[in-house]
Design brief:
The protein is an alpha/beta fold. Helix content is 33%, strand content 24%. It binds nicotinamide-adenine-dinucleotide.
Length: 342
């Protein structure tokens, strides 16, 4: 069986990446759409052969409960709308994938996790890097230690925001935050899989060079972390600098991904040259990601981006904002192994 996925929110990412990726998927397909823009309905129905009965808007969305063709609801809306639609999807008895950031507060992450538990549905975050082969190779180097233990990591994630002051990404209410909410979660993610452990403390600084443009949200943030295995590191995220790199320093060498969170294929190298190389032929990241979640639903295989992982990252986001508010104070974190998938 192939699972039927309904995409909620047919913007740039749903249209440009997820829908095309679903055409290549083995265990799921694009079965339905949920949109607030009536003009998109016919365009998508024609393009992806979606029957009228699988098309919903934000008002009648809850009727999806009665539609057996839809197994999974994938929420691809502005960040502050994730929680509402994930919870409505769970109550409709559908498995849920939410785009990153999972939600705009830890309280909202908890509400999503609880709604999924109460309704007996599976929950995943749209963390496409967690099933990327380059990421997995970093995880292998960290776990198997061919170059020894990790000592230090550095991770950067940012892009230069164009001149569009009206976009939701610059609106605190819709985005929940700026660069940190959007790109910062990638830096948090790669810091953690690069270190192979969760941070136990974090301290952060914010920099604003275009205050007239970034009126409501953060532009650039740096943060320093200590991890539970004594790795130390730093991360940088920005809406005003292109940055896309993970550096992992081992006792006897180093590995680097650059780019480290693009749609792929990524590029990687190590200090060992020909000895430790990154594979990999062309692959389709979002296809792999959604197939992996579908397999999890169908067979109980590993969920590589569970809700707990999304929530952990928002705990870290909140700690970063708190540190900035308190003038860079070091904030302790008590995460244990939360969100670490073995
Ligand atoms: P987008 O602006 O291109 O699309 C947003 C969609 O939401 C549009 O279809 C819009 O009509 C709809 N919408 C509904 N209510 C809205 C409102 N009040 N204001 C603005 N739009 C509204 O954004 P996007 O780039 O597709 O991002 C959507 C989500 O996907 C975000 O959470 C983002 O972080 C995530 N995303 C993830 C990746 C990834 O690589 N995993 C990449 C891009 C975006």
């Amino acid at each position: 069986k192939k699972l039927g996925i309904a995409l909620v929110g047919l913007g740039g990412y749903a249209g440009g990446q997820l829908a095309p990726a679903l055409l290549k998927a083995e265990h799921c397909y694009l079965a339905g759409i949920v949109t607030g823009t009536p003009s998109k309905e016919k365009e998508w129905m024609d393009k992806y052969s979606i029957p009228k009965e699988n098309v919903y808007n934000y008002e009648n969305f809850d009727n999806i409960a009665k539609n057996d063709a839809i197994d999974v609801v994938y929420v691809v809306l502005p960040n502050s709308m994730h929680a509402e639609f994930c919870i409505r999807a769970a109550k409709a008895g559908k498995h849920v994938i939410t785009e990153k950031p999972m939600a705009v507060s830890v309280a909202e992450c908890d509400a999503i996790i609880n709604a999924c538990k109460e309704n007996g549905v599976k929950l995943g975050v749209g963390y496409r890097m967690q099933t990327d082969p380059y990421t997995n190779e970093i995880k292998r180097l960290v776990a198997e230690k061919p170059m020894g233990e990790v000592q230090y990591i550095s991770s950067d994630a940012g892009f230069v925001s164009g001149n569009n002051p009206d976009q939701w990404r610059l609106n605190k209410k819709l985005a929940g935050g700026g660069a940190l909410m959007d790109m910062g979660v990638y830096a948090i993610q790669s810091s953690i899989y690069g270190a192979g452990a969760n941070p136990v403390s974090i301290s952060a600084q914010e920099f604003k060079t275009r205050p007239d443009y970034f009126k409501e949200v953060d532009e650039s943030i740096t943060a320093q972390m200590k991890f539970s295995n004594d790795v130390v590191g730093n991360m940088f995220t920005s809406y005003n600098a292109n940055a896309n790199r993970l550096f992992v320093s081992f006792r006897r060498g180093w590995a680097e991904l650059n780019p480290c969170h693009s749609y792929g294929p990524l590029a990687g190298r190590t200090s060992k040259g020909e000895e430790i190389k990154f594979p990999f032929e062309r692959y389709y990241q979002q296809t792999t990601q959604m197939d992996s979640f579908a397999k999890h639903v169908l067979t109980g295989s590993t969920n590589f981006a569970p809700g707990e992982m999304g929530k952990r990252d928002i705990i870290i986001v909140e700690a970063i904002y708190k540190s900035i508010e308190e003038g860079g104070k070091t904030i302790p974190l008590d995460l244990g192994d939360m969100g670490i998938v073995k």
